[in-house]
Each structure stands twice: as C-alpha cells, then as structure tokens.
Specification:
Layout (H helix, E strand, L loop, with lengths): L1 E4 L7 H7 L11 H7 L16 E8 L17 H13 L2 E5 H7 L11 H6 L7 E5 L10 H4 L6 E4 L5 H9 L3 E4 L8 H9 L5 E4 L3 H9 L5 E6 L23 E9 L2 E8 L1
Parallel strand pairs: 2-7, 2-8, 3-4, 3-7, 4-5, 5-6
Antiparallel strand pairs: 1-9, 8-10, 9-10
C-alpha cells in the first residue's frame, strides 16, 4: 500500500526521516498505521461543531459505478479493501446498516479483535462496535446470531409508528429499539443524535445504497470512504447511493488517497 495524496511537503531524505514512516513506498501497512490514517476527528475538532457524532460511510464501487455484483459487494472487494473494512469497524462505536443489507449480506455481530483491544479500551469503547439496524417495518429474524449472539447488544432504529407487534418481538429477543423518526421510518438527521444518547458518537455506515442515499440527501453524512475496485461489473447494479434528489449537489473535500493492487481507497469529508 502507498499513499498518493496528500504527499509529503518536502521530499528531501532528512525531511522524510523526520516525518516518520514512509507513506509513499509500496509496502504492507500495519494495522496501527491504517488506524492512524482513518482516525475519527476528536470531539473538539471544529469540523464536528454542532454535530452530535461523526457519521462516515464505507462503500466499494466497480470502475463502472456498480455497488455490488449479483446482489453482494464481496465480488468487488479484495484483501486490502477487507483490511480497511476491518479497521474502520474496529475504530467505530456503532455500525449503522439498513435492514435489506442485513438480510442480503447475512450480517453477523461485530467481533472483538485483539489488535484493537487496547486502543478501544483507551477510547472508552466496548470490545466491539454495536450493529445498529435501520428498519421501518422491523421485518427481521430476531433468532439470527446478529440478535442472539452479539458481544455488544444489537440496536434497531425505527420510527415512532413502527408496527407495535414487531417492536415487542424485538424487545422480547433482547434487542434495544431506538425511535429516530415521527412516522413509520427513520429520519436520517436524527440517527446520530439517537445513537449519541447511547454513547455512540463514532459512527460507520456500510449502506446499503438506499440508506446511504438518504443520509447524504439529508445532509447527515460527514465522511465518505470509497474503495474504487479495478473491475468492471456491467449489469444493472445500483450505484453506491440511491436516494432522493438534492436541489444542489453537495461538495466534499478530498482528505486522502491510498493505493494497493490497483484499488484506490479514497476519503472525502464534508465542507
């Protein structure tokens, strides 16, 4: 892996040594180096002013813009993409995901990783991130391991008008139900606040495209980590976002670009 952006301000040998690790030579990065590259902004960082938490997204796309192949994102991924996927999870308090993605991808509870145990403990985090499922109808199988075997209790976010029998079924299974909307569904703007009330402020969403599109259209997305896969999928797969139109496209600023084996790992932050 190597960093393509930002490059060091100076390329002299003395300056390179003073800057620490060589980020521009292609080599395998340690998990600590990846964690530093993807660190969340601190609570007192001006970019977080007025925001209850920080919501970043992690998605992979083919060269022709497909978010999946045959319904799953795994065919677009690779070893480096999966390492970054694991690091982003390990840095987060909660992983926010749509119900359809849970069903399609066969989501399981996040696991504890020994390599991040000390880092998470120092940050006041639990052994693993919570999975927070966004669902209007709560048409979920609460007997699945995601709900019965988590290290950290799985959460479900829904609207105040969610079906009462499904809310009761979730709670009977030990799932904590959070209301983040006045109607049947979730208000994307309220998700970060609802999770912050549970102490989850470092948020990661893995989609799917519809949920991510809703976050982006509502101005609730703070950061986009997009892996560009060197494959062409063709077909009729969705884009990485599928949501309501916005009056004016929102501009994000490029934070970094990493490269490995033809994959580009980009990181963008809202202005």
């Amino acid at each position: 892996m190597r960093r393509l952006f930002p490059l060091p301000l100076s390329t002299t040998p003395d300056a390179a040594r003073a800057a620490g690790p060589d980020w521009t030579t292609d080599r395998e990065w340690t998990l600590d180096e990846l964690a530093a590259a993807y660190a969340y902004p601190e609570a007192d960082d001006p970019v977080r002013s007025g925001r209850p938490g920080w919501l970043r997204a992690n998605m992979v796309s083919s060269l022709d813009g497909a978010a999946h192949h045959d319904g799953r994102s795994q065919p677009l991924s690779g070893d480096a993409d999966m390492r970054i996927f694991g690091v982003l999870r390990a840095l987060s308090d909660a992983v926010v995901v749509g119900a359809e993605t849970v069903r399609r991808e066969g989501y399981r509870p996040a696991r504890a990783r020994a390599a991040f145990a000390a880092r998470r403990a120092a940050a006041g985090q639990g052994p693993a991130p919570a999975i927070a499922v966004v669902s209007a109808g709560l048409a979920l199988d609460f007997a699945l391991p995601l709900f019965t075997e988590p290290l950290v209790p799985t959460l479900v976010l829904t609207g105040a008008d969610a079906p009462e029998e499904r809310v009761r079924a979730a709670r009977a299974a030990g799932v904590e139900v959070l209301f983040a909307g006045e109607g049947l569904g979730v208000d994307p703007v309220r998700v970060a606040g609802a999770l912050a009330e549970r102490g989850h402020t470092r948020l990661l969403t893995e989609g799917g495209p519809r949920l991510l599109g809703q976050f982006a259209a509502a101005g609730a997305l703070d950061e986009m980590c997009l892996s560009l896969s060197p494959v062409v999928a063709v077909g009729d797969a969705q884009r990485i976002m599928d949501g309501p139109a916005v009056a004016v496209p929102e501009r994000f600023a490029l934070v970094s670009v990493l490269e490995e084996s033809g994959f580009l790992f980009t990181r963008y932050r809202r202005f």
